[in-house]
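B., you asked whether I could sanity-check this one before it goes into the benchmark set. Here's the sequence:
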Amino acid sequence: MNTEKMASPSSPCFFLGANTPGGFYSLFDELYEPEDGWRLFIIKGGPGTGKSTLMKRVAAECDRRGMYCERIYCSSDPGSLDAVIIPHKKISICDGTPPHTVEPRFPGVSETIVDLGRCRDDEKLREKSSEIIALTLENSREHKKCVSFLRAAAAASNNIKANLLPAIDGVKLQKFSESLAAKELGEASGERGRIRRRFLGAPTPSGIAVFYDTFTDMCERRIVLEDTFGLTSGAIMRYMAIEAVGRGYSVIECLSPMSPDGTPFAVMIPETGLGLIAADRQHACPFEASRTVNCSRFLNADEVRRHRNRIVFGRKTYDEFIAEALKKLKNAKEIHDRLEKYYIDAMDFGKVKRLSGEIVKEIFGDEKK
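And here's what the prediction gave me:
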């Protein structure tokens, strides 16, 4: 399976949505905190209507002003933005259309709708209604097929894990986790931190994409957990995340798209410069580690050897299902590109540019440049 290292701009890059074995998994509730005075601009409009271009303009303005922001990319089209988060201003802007539909919770107070449909000639779209509907439904079918293959891949992986669970030395794993936390995290501050959730990587039309540059930019001390079977690295990272929060640190927990409700793929503690990340056959970390932990040390080798044939079969099956899932995502992207053309033809991009300028001005105001 191809693992694509994606370039990361000076601002950290993440995904907030991904295709998973359980369907599309959205973390868009992490975009803002209405109770803490945040605002969210929700962009509505069809494919190719300028949503990503508007967000790129906002991100570029942040860069121009030397202002920290997070770029949130679209896992179905990694060249496009899904959102931009600007903590300094407590403002986020996002694509609020399916599959990560976002609707206002406190309209006019915390959220503002940006309707790019105002710049669209719907009559042109209605003239091509049958083609647009057909392509939209075809795109949806390809995504559903992708999810089916991811589900099958997860079943193959889970079967391997189920067979190897008795091989785990739980006492040794717990002692290691406790020792690591004591060494790396120090004493508690008396306060409690918080956990933010992100995807550092996701299946995309061009392969499994991981923002390794974001990890290395945010973490000077990098602990790579080499975990061939994905059995113990997640438990170590979850323990470290909980301990860090208890010591008053803010943690970025990066979920695994193959198990978003389970153990993490990476954990970053920016205040300490510490990061932990899993490495396996599909994710070979392309950077120098401060420390590498071979997680096979927590497994009984004889028990692992006893299941060798099942492991070989399960891996082969997993790889084949993942490859098929990525093909379906590629098909969906090609269909989406065809669909975009109809909307592009119906848009007045002069109006879009003017509206975008108004939004940029509203976000940044007269703040010193």
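One thing to flag: Residues 1-9 have pLDDT under 50 and may be disordered. Otherwise nothing jumped out at me.
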